[in-house]
Amino acid sequence: MTEQSAPTTRPQSVADLDTAELGGENSILARQRRDHDELDRMMNAYEQAATDGPERDELWRSIVQLVFSHAFAEETVLWPLLRRVSDDGEALTAVVEEEHQAVNELVAKVEEADPADPRRAEWIAEAFALIRQDIRDEEDELLPLLRAALDDRRLRQVGASWDAVRRGAPTRPHPGIPRRPPGNAVLGVPLSGYDRLRDLGARRPGVLAGAALSVTGAALLAARARRSGR
Ligand SMILES: [Fe+2]
Ligand SMILES: [Fe+2]
């Protein structure tokens, strides 16, 4: 494994690299770009949908699930690594963590608002603008530093770790939990079970009964984390 200090000159955006240059299709860079492209496609489709209705609701749900699971795995796996391998990591990851926090707050407002609230469209537009900015910052500034610091094999290992966390990550906004480890993992992982039950419950309401266990677990862990000063 080779982790070394990234060079000071700014590398090329990962948007301009082909799959081989990204380290293969399982590398973290290729996996990130696929999710970003999918988010972009869904946000465009949402904006182009003529009217509100079940199709648009389903698109919104898919965007929310992908945004938060993707970002949680970044906060847990990628940004701590970037802070280790690049002198610019601290400042750059602080910027994207702020973007993630703002998206969390906006989507939480959308989800809590009355469906007829006219401000929802404004908040959704703001959230989409922030997600697009986050994608540009990552592809143009942060991910190239990983490309510069890690060899292809390591990029694929990081890709596998990131994907494993993403598959068990929260799928809904949680603006109250920290954006950095260990707090995000301690509080976020238990919430993932609850989120996924709620996602299922949106289609099968009876499933929600079992969610109370996850909530209790999350509350206990939150109290423990607060007591230990995390
Ligand atoms: Fe990303
Ligand atoms: Fe992100």
Automatic annotation (TrEMBL):
Region annotation Disordered: where it falls in the sequence: 1-36
Pfam families, A to Z: Hemerythrin (PF01814)
Protein name per Swiss-Prot or TrEMBL: Hemerythrin domain-containing protein
Hemerythrin-like domain residues: 29-146
InterPro entries tied to this protein: Hemerythrin-like
Residue spans of biased composition, Polar residues class: 1-12
